[in-house]
Amino acid sequence: MKSWLIIFAVVAVALLAALFIFNNNSNKLTTTEFYNKCGITYDLTADEGFKYNADSAEIAKIVIDVYNLKGYTKEKNGSYKLTYSASFSREETDFKIINSLAAHGVIIDNTDPNSGSLWSSLIMPILTIAIGIVIVIIFIRQMGAGNKSAMDFGRTKAQIMSNVKVKFSDVAGADEEKTELQEIVEFLKNPQKFTQLGAKIPKGVLLVGPPGTGKTLFAKAVAGEASVPFFSISGSDFVEMFVGVGASRVRDLFNTAKKNQPCIVFIDEIDAVGRQRGAGLGGGNDEREQTLNQLLVQMDGFEANEGVIIIAATNRADVLDPALLRPGRFDRQIYVNMPDVRGREAILKVHARNKPLAPDVNFKVLARMTGGFSGADLANLLNEAAILAARENRKFITNVDLYESINKVVMGPQKRSRLMTESDKRQTAYHESGHAILAKLLPDFYPVQEVSIIPRGRAGGYTLARPDNDDNFITKDFLNADLIMTMGGRAAEALVLKKVTSGPSGDITQATRIARAMVTEYGMSEKIGPVSYGNNGEIFVGRDYQQREPYSEDTAKIIDNEIRDIINSAYEKALSLLTENRQRLDTMARLLIERETIYGEEVDMVMEGKTLEEILEYIEHKESANPLEKAMKKEAEETNNATQNGVDETSGQK
């Protein structure tokens, strides 16, 4: 069939090309222009309405081919050459002109419509019809083949994972979670060990946790360790715009799994198909609910799926349907939390296996500095450090690269090229100094590690204060200290610059969030008492739509007033502390303007009352002992000078 179509296409193209060449060998004219070349001019005063002028005649021979006129000029050797062509309407006037031309000696060849020359004018219509017929035939055949594709539309898109190189040894920082999944793999490899004690294989395991904690990585480790078929599919692969497709794919997935049992089926982002039923904003039938119903039946219905284990992952377990979470469907719910300090250290070691590190790199210190980082954040941290080291043409990843990568992951890359006026730099220096000094004065807050007025991401400057340990509980004293430190930037600007700007807008937003949580969620308000008025979990429109607040308007006013009072109290406290420590505030601001970035040691020296000259002398001595820091400082100064030169040049042009 394909070879026949190729031959037909080649012949059709050749015929079209020949016909095109044949029709374009002559100069195509209008009928009037053609008659003018024959010596005919229209004259209404004449009896026939036209006259013949032999002097202007170029055409010596005319061939009438049905509805076409072909004009030939006579060469010197007596031959005729096709030169002009035009359409022939075959009206009475046309025949009078032809007869007149014949009377004046023009050779007229009137081709018989029934002769073979008729085919030359019919080639195009016949060829067009033939091509149309072939296109229809091809379309019908494709539709026939499409029936098979349409039948495949309801089949599962699950892929059998093979050659997965991830093992449990590649997963770190979650030993308990790893043990739970290792039991599943052991159950499949040696079921007699469990069945002889009356244990049944779990039907489903649900991995729950924040993004980046390694849920999908655990599934890949199971695929790499298990010696049974492993099917992987995303929750969004079930639902389509066509009714019934999702349920059909669920049935096909489990039918395929039953044929390959014992096996494991992994459904990533199951919340895409497993959300609570009846949570749609519109009425009518919901295709997703049909898919979920079919999934519930297949996981624990009348038919037994003893050899099929379902592993699913989600970061929104709160939106899943309760019927999906019950034992018998997902017997185990494994919560994959953020790693603690020991877990972060283990994760850093795993991701640093193929990276050359400097001898002084200490994973314990890095683990303490990366509180709140997920496994994905830590992997990204080491990757960014490797990129920074390569950018500087270093053969090893140093602590400087790692520390810079931490800041880059948290706040974004440095933007040294951003133009800052002297007034903006002074304002930013006092703003960040206010944060840093209050953080040092408040005993319940984290230690300050770094202060900078170099823009990062969307921030004009930053103050980094990180905990030494991972605290599971937050005290009221710490939250109050956090509020005071957060309002320190605005207090410093008001104290020194005597004006309020839009700079502290992010601080105000954060302070409002903390104060609202203290009042409505943590029960830390004396006026409200230990009552929760906060939202239960994250927002889910399908569940929270048209849901009223669980308190009256009077209570809402009390909550608003309490939030305002807490924030105002923190601001007044920040203003009071900075007023008492005005000399330290000025010293740190001048130091930031001079150095742009200072670290914990320099901050401690400011709090000890050291002068600016003493601190600068200490920094110079430290940099002379560390050539790498000195080189980085020189590079920063060159970048800053280039930027400043650009400002001066622009100002000169203005």
Describe the structure.
This protein is of the alpha/beta class. It has helices spanning 2-23, 31-37, 92-103, 118-152, 175-189, 192-195, 215-225, 245-259, 287-299, 322-325, 341-351, 363-369, 375-391, 399-411, 422-441, 476-486, 488-497, 505-520, 541-544, 553-580, 582-595, 600-607, 612-625, 627-653; strands spanning 27-28, 40-42, 50-52, 61-65, 68-74, 80-87, 107-110, 159-160, 204-208, 230-234, 263-268, 308-314, 332-335, 448-452, 462-465, 597-599. A hairpin with a 5-residue loop joins strand 5 (68-74) and strand 6. Helix 1 (2-23) packs antiparallel against helix 4 (118-152) and helix 16 runs antiparallel to helix 18 (505-520). It is elongated and about 125 Å long. Residues 112-118, 145-151 and 638-654 have low confidence and may be disordered.
How many helical stretches? 24
- Largest sheet entry: 6 strands, mixed
What is the 3D form?
elongated
> Share of helix among residues?
40-55%
SS-based structural class? alpha/beta
How far from one another are the termini? 75 Å
Name the poorly predicted regions: 112-118, 145-151, 638-654
